[in-house]
Amino acid sequence: MKIATYNVNGINGRLPVLLRWLAESQPDIVCLQELKAPQEKFPDKPIRDLGYDAIWQGQKSWNGVAILSRVGQIHETRRGLPGDPDDSHSRYIEAAVNGILIGGLYLPNGNPKPGPKFDYKLRWFDRLIAHAGELLATGQPVMLAGDFNVMPTDLDVYKPERWLDDALFAPEARAAYFRLLEQGWTDALRTLHPDEAIYTFWDYFRNAFARNAGLRIDHLLLSPPLAERLVDAQVDVVVRGWEKSSDHAPVWIELADATTSARRAAPRRRVTPVRA
To answer: What's an example of a GO molecular-function annotation for this chain (predicted)?
Structure first.
């Protein structure tokens, strides 16, 4: 089973890119972030025409998350993290799909730092950690997937010395990420690429993509039952180079069948039918 996360950076403006990638890569389940569309403007028909069921939580101009599936019904279990009933941001959606509980998330950026936006980022992170701990305690196959807006280590950012004052690389944000992992989550991409400078985001400015001046901020975290099934984890880098593409690239993992022993692939570059 192939499961992906993709920050589309505006689903309607980037719809041709999204549809092309879905048709060519054919992931089974997808978490989307930054829809930047109100609930009624989600393009469900063209997505369903490709064979995907969908649930989403929209928000005008900002945020927005969705889960797509072509391998069974999506049984929504939650939208919005617990812990702050006044939080109006569309940043978290959760559902059971094909035997896996998936939390799709778009963690706050937090810039400028210091300030209220950074404080909100850390509070949101704390709420995520608390909820993730409850999910993990169930012992069920669970995944957290999305744009975490954090580069965990120096290996996850081009020229880390230039990001020391940024909220995405702040010690507090990185520490929160590792508090999350310490609960027992597996960072799928880094597990299969332990020493590789592998990125998921490249800014539109300063020719960042051509220079491979990127960041790794999109993550798929697996509970122990899923980590045992991890076979592959890759980034569809080529999609970032398509015309009118998002500044993120899709990230995906492959899981062995629940009844089959997983055989972890040797770390390697992208292997995908997606074409330039």
So the answer is: DNA binding
